[in-house]
Structures are given as C-alpha cells and as structure tokens.
User: Which sequence fits this backbone?
C-alpha cells in the first residue's frame, strides 16, 4: 500500500510540473500567428470574432482559476488572454 501511495505522489509531482510547462508552451505556440500579423502586417484568414471569443472564454477560465486558487490555471489563462488580445488587435489593424 505504501509503495502505491509513493508512486501516486511521484506521478502527481510530475504532472504538476508538466501542467506549468504546458501552460506556458501552449500560448507560445501562438507566436507564429502573431509574427504573421504584426511583422508582415497580414491578418488575412484570421477571424477577429473567433480570437475575440477565445479572449472572452479565457476570462472565465482565469476567473475560475483565481476563485479556486489554481496557480497553473491562472498562469495559463493570463498568457492566453495576452496572446488572444495581441492577435485580435492585429486583426483589427491589419485585417
């Protein structure tokens, strides 16, 4: 029984670290879209409505993370909201 608990705790520790990494890497994967929009001033095919909706929905997740004091959720959705806002702003300027 003790060995099973040790294994579960080790798994949880790994998963906890992985969630932080995913929470940072996920939003960073938006950078190619941001480069296309801002560097090349090309927002063709990018929907302000979709990205604006992602921004609003991320706000709900951020509020949930704050309410539940879940740091990985807070970090992830702060990053996502910044990325969504950068994309939406670029689409409105260059779209």
Assistant:
């Amino acid at each position: 029984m003790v060995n099973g608990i040790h294994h579960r705790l080790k798994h949880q520790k790994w998963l906890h670290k992985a969630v932080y990494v995913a929470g940072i890497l996920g939003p960073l994967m938006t950078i190619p879209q941001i480069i296309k929009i801002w560097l090349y001033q090309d927002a063709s095919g990018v929907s302000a409505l979709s990205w604006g909706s992602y921004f609003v929905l991320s706000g709900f997740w951020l509020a949930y993370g704050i309410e539940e004091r879940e740091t990985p959720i807070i970090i992830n959705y702060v990053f996502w909201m910044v990325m969504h806002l950068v994309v939406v702003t670029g689409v409105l300027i260059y779209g």
